[in-house]
Structures are given as C-alpha cells and as structure tokens.
Amino acid sequence: MTARLLEGKVFAAKIKEEAKREAEEFAEAYGRMPGLAVIIVGEDPASQVYVRNKEKACEELGFISKQIQLPETATKEELLARIDALNRDEEISGILCQLPLPEAIAPYESEILERIDPLKDVDGFHPVNVGLLVMGKKALSPCTPAGCMKMLELSGIPVDGKRVAVIGRSNIVGKPMFHLLLAGHATVTLCHSHTENLKEICREADILVAAVGKPHFVTADMVKPGATVIDVGINRIAPKKLVGDVDFESVKEVAGAITPVPGGVGLLTIATLMMNTVEAARLQQEKQGETRI
Ligand code: NAP
C-alpha cells in the first residue's frame, strides 16, 4: 500500500487563497487590509529568511506589512517600547516577535511575548490565548498545529470521533495540537518521553502526529494500517538534508495518508499566520464594537 501524499504546497495555496478572500471582505467592511508586523532582533540568518518569507506572503496577499529590525544589542526596554507602539497602531492587526531572541534578552522571552496585546498575538503564545484554547473558546492558536488542523479539514480527513495520538508536548506544537484536536471532538492521547507503551498507543491511532524532533522516530510498526500520519518534525541530518520525525519510506507503505518532509507541514505555517492575521483583525473589530455599545 502506498499512502496518499499530503503535500504542503497544495494546502498552503488553499489557505492563502482563503486568507486573501477573507482579508478582502474585511477591507470592504472596514476600509483597510489586515496588517502584520514582524519584529526581529539581531542578525540570525535563519530568522532573517523566515522574516523575509513572511514579508513576501504579506505582499502576495496584499496585507499591510511592517518589519522592525532591532540591533543585536537592543535592550528589553527598547523591545517592549516597540511592542507597545505596535499594540497602539491601528494599521497593525498582528504582531510577531521572531524567536530565538539574542542571548542577552532571551531570559525575558515570556515577559516580552506577554506584552503583545492578546488580540494581536498571531503566534497564539500569549497565556490569554492559551487559556482560551484550553477552555475550547475562540482564540488565536499557534500556526503550526492550526495549519495541521486546516490541512486535515481541506483533505477531507475526519477528526470527529477518531482516535489520535500526538507525540510531543511542547507549548508550540504538541499541547496546542492536543487542544485543537479535542475541540474537533477527537479522542486524543498526548505522548511524551515518559509515555509507556508508546508503540501500542500509536498503533491504535487513526491519526498520528509526530512532533518529537528526532529523525525517523516513527517507524512502520508504530502505525495502524490506513492511518493518517502528520510529520511536524524538521531535523537537519546533513548540511543540505532535512528529514522529519517519521521514517517516510517505510511508513508510507502502511499509512493511508502522510505528509512529507520537506514539503509538508512546514509550508503551512506562514499560510496559517496570514489566516490568523485576518482573524486577529476581525477580533479587534468585534472588541471595538463591544466597547462602543
Ligand atoms: P520540543 O520542544 O523539543 O519537544 C519535543 C517533544 O518530544 C517533548 O515533549 C518530548 O517529551 C518529546 N519526546 C522526546 N523524546 C521522546 C521519546 N523518546 N518518546 C516520546 N516523546 C519524546 O520540540 P517542538 O518545538 O515541539 O518541535 C518538535 C519538532 O517539530 C522539531 O523537529 C521542530 O523542528 C519541529 N517544528 C516544526 C515546525 C513547522 O513549522 N513544521 C514548527 C515547530 C516545530 P518531554 O516533554 O517528556 O521531554
């Protein structure tokens, strides 16, 4: 059996199309396109590439886009002042502070991220959004797991009532993935490095999500025949070779559907960020409406 390939570029294009259409509807109603601001501190080359890609996505969709480049030596206070200004900026619907932060201010990461207005927190990392997600309420959710949910929806793979195993419990991927799946009425098991009988749990899953950060961690004997396998992992095993957490070659013979790495989930993150930016713009308008009443 060879699994159906869930290609990131196909779903990313659909998500961007939807974001563009919704942004245009927003602009028709409120007279401006949603706006995304990205703050980058220092010169980390990988971060520079990510920020450029976000800027390109804004251009492609016609969003307002602002890049704030601060020097490596920027202080916490300088960064907080920039965030405060963006929180007040009506043109800006979403604010994203590119991680990792330089070593000198990295210890203040939580304080810095929590300074972003929860209604503009398009990364979904603010405790208010985390809390809303846990309570099953409308929230801005982290882009990678939200992108996985959107991909499942667009590919017609049902979640409701299904058994799902998520391997990895990070705040960025595993935990929000768990809550999004739960909100979609799946029965979810969240696995981590202390989980006993991992293989048996995985083999019962209709959908298996791997967010471990270990190359080829998920092997064919861990997968239920016909299951959907979503590989969130990105592992560099040689200067020009990226692999996921799933042993793709063997697992694709057992799974019903599978995401490749590269070319899978990684491509969904920016598209989902655009979707979150439109959602943030709408939430701010709703809030303004409420305060006027
Ligand atoms: P992380 O913070 O390092 O978390 C890894 C998780 O895997 C932890 O919860 C850990 O358990 C668990 N784990 C480690 N060894 C295990 C084992 N032997 N059995 C079961 N669970 C085990 O990583 P992350 O930030 O969630 O990222 C995971 C992967 O996704 C990485 O490869 C990362 O590069 C990738 N990623 C991709 C995207 C994207 O856009 N596609 C976005 C974010 C991350 P404990 O909690 O017990 O330590």
Describe the structure in your own words.
- It is a single chain.
- The protein folds into 2 domains: 30-117, Leucine Dehydrogenase, chain A, domain 1 (Rossmann fold, 3-Layer(aba) Sandwich); 143-267, NAD(P)-binding Rossmann-like Domain (Rossmann fold, 3-Layer(aba) Sandwich), CATH 3.40.50.720.
- 42% of the residues lie in helices and 16% in strands.
- The chain has 10 helices and 11 strands.
- The strands form 3 sheets. A 6-stranded parallel β-sheet has the order 1-11-8-7-5-6. It has a 3-stranded parallel β-sheet with strand order 3-2-4, sandwiched between helices.
- A hairpin with a 2-residue loop joins strand 9 (235-238) and strand 10.
- Helix 1 packs parallel to helix 10.
- The longest helix is centred in the C-terminal third of the chain and has 25 residues, at 268-292.
- It is globular.
- The protein starts with a strand and ends with a helix.
- It binds NADP nicotinamide-adenine-dinucleotide phosphate.
**CATH fold node name of the largest domain:** Rossmann fold
Q: What is the chain-wise order of helices and strands?
A: EHEHEHEHHHEHEHEEEEHEH
Shape: globular
Whole-number count of domains: 2
The low-confidence runs, each spanning 5 or more residues with pLDDT under 50, are none
Please report the distance between the alpha carbons of the first and last residues. Answer: 59 Å
Structural class: alpha/beta
CATH architecture of the largest domain: 3-Layer(aba) Sandwich
> How would a textbook summarize the main sheet?
6 strands, parallel
Q: Round the Cα radius of gyration to an integer and report it.
A: 19 Å
**Structure summary, number of beta strands:** 11
- Helical stretch count? 10
User: By CATH's scheme, which homologous superfamily of the largest domain applies?
Assistant: NAD(P)-binding Rossmann-like Domain
Briefly, what CATH class of the largest domain? Alpha Beta
pLDDT averaged over residues: 97
Q: What is the strand content?
A: 15-25%
The kinds of small molecule bound in this structure are: NADP nicotinamide-adenine-dinucleotide phosphate
Q: What percent of residues adopt helix (DSSP H or I)?
A: 40-55%
